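Weekly modeling sync, notes
Attendees: S.R. (lead), two postdocs, one rotation student

Agenda item 3: backlog of single-chain predictions. S.R. asked that every request posted to the team notebook include the full sequence so nobody has to chase files. The rotation student volunteered to paste the first one in as an example of the format we agreed on. Action items at the bottom.

Example entry:
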Amino acid sequence: MPDARTLLTDDGVRLEAELGVATGPVRAVAVLCHPHPQYGGSMRSIVIGALFDALPAQGVTCLRFNFRGVEGSEGSYDGGNLERVDVEAAVAAVDPQLAGAAGPVPLLLAGWSFGADMALSVRDHRVGAWMAVAPPLHYVHDLDGLADDSRPKLLALAQHDEVRDPAEVEALAGAWANTEVQVVGGASHFFVGRTERLVQLAGGFVDRLAAPAGSP
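Predicted structure, as returned to the notebook:
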C-alpha cells in the first residue's frame, strides 16, 4: 500500500501525497506531477497512476502529490505560478530517500500535460532528468532555458494529441540540449489504452539514467 505523506510548501501550503517505495534496491527516485487541476487532474489520473503502480517494481521509488486546491491539498489553483512551488516541495521531500539508497541515485522529475509543464519549470540542482508526457508547453517557466540545460529530457508525445499538435512541441524541443522525443502511436492526449507504452518508455529512461558510468 502507498505511504500517505504531507508536503509543506515554502509558502506554508500543505499538500497530500503518496510514496510508493521501490521493490528491492533503489535505482532511482521519481516525482510525478498530475494534469490540470481545473479539468479533473489529480495524483490518481490515468498516466500518473500507471507510472506510480508500475515503477516501484523496477526499483524506482515514486512520490505523487496533489497540487494546491486539489482534493485534500490546501490552497487554490494559481494558474501555473505557485504550482511550481508545489513541485519544489515534492523534490525536497524525496531528497532523504536519495540519501537512504545504497549510493547516489538519479531523481527523475516527471509529469503529464499541465504537470509536465510544471516539471519542466523546476530546475532544482537535485533533479537529474525530466520526463514530460504530452506537455502543452503553455505553462513552462523560462522555456528558453531548457535549450542550455544539459540534463537528459524525454518527451513522450501523443500522435493524436487534442491539446497541442505534437509536431509543434517537437519543433520547440528541437533547440533543447540532450532531449529525446518519442511519439506514442495511436495515442490521444489521454493515452487510454497506451499507458503501457509510457511505462516502457519510463523504464527504459531509468535504465539509461541508472546505468553505471562508462556502460554502453
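Discussion: group reviewed the output briefly. The first strand starts at residue 3 and ends at 8.
Action items: rotation student to repeat for the remaining queue; S.R. to check formatting next week.
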